User: What shape does this take?
Amino acid sequence: MDLQELTDAIVAGNMNGAVTLSKQAVESGIEPKTIISDYLIKGMEIIGARFGEGKAFVPNLLMSARAMKGCLDLLKPMMQGESGISYGKVVIGTVKGDLHDIGKNLVASMFEGSGFEVINLGINVDADKFVKAVIDNDADILSLSALLTTTMGYMKDVIKAVEEAGIRNNVKIMVGGAPLNEAFAREIGADVYTADANEAVIVAKKLLGKSS
Ligand code: B1M
Assistant: This one.
């Protein structure tokens, strides 16, 4: 089958078409992870670039996001990890002021699918809520997401709140999102920056000493 059509359906915001094509791709033996990373994310990148060039608008982004979510809802249950395995607990959320959740949910799904327990706090999460969730769940990892240059700075406030709560040594802090990089992560005192969902899982296991 021609999976370019799936990318096109995401770009066009055609949820039913995208979900049908995702189903067909699974039935033809393509791994859910490959469908997401090679075709769905590509569609979001294309619509994002068009938005940046003034050739697409917020309603287009919303429709593409809805189509992407429909596909992720279908594919996520197919990526569950081996039962009984728990590599650790991850608290994850998109920081205050930021409503983007597709990438963050993808990271959460990959963590779940790889055998982590995930507490997903959603979007627009303030520092106190992150701290409370880490304490209440005795989390091993705090994972922060931001997609806006105007909200990424709030990650520093979250890390400060974690330090002030006296729990900084109990939890590894991972950050991610399109406008971030390693230098920024170092500057705000995070333990690590990862560029995508796959890398996040690999690095998380290393951070907790669960893989070489
Ligand atoms: Co927004 N938006 N948006 N948007 N939006 C961007 C981010 C933008 C780059 C578009 C552009 O101008 N080209 C731009 C930001 C510019 C900037 O900050 N410099 C932008 C803007 C400006 C805005 C608004 C201000 C627009 C407006 O209202 N005028 C507004 C802000 C709202 C707010 O948050 N307060 C806004 C709104 C929206 C929608 C609501 C319409 C919608 C979001 C819907 C939703 O998420 N439910 C939306 C969308 C869809 C986008 C784009 C097109 C796509 C984002 C996405 O889902 N990508 C985006 C352009 C782009 O990124 N190309 C854009 C796919 C996703 C899989 O990738 O999220 O990067 P990503 O996640 C990756 C990695 O970053 C990483 O792994 C993920 C998967 O591999 N990662 C992590 C992410 N979090 C991680 C955490 C980790 C590790 C890795 O922890 C360990």
Observations:
- Residues 41, 44-45, 47-48, 51-52, 58, 61-62, 65, 97-104, 106-107, 143, 145, 147-149, 174-179, 194, 196-197, 200 surround CO-5-methoxybenzimidazolylcobamide (CB under 6 Å).
- The chain has two domains: 4-79, 89-207.
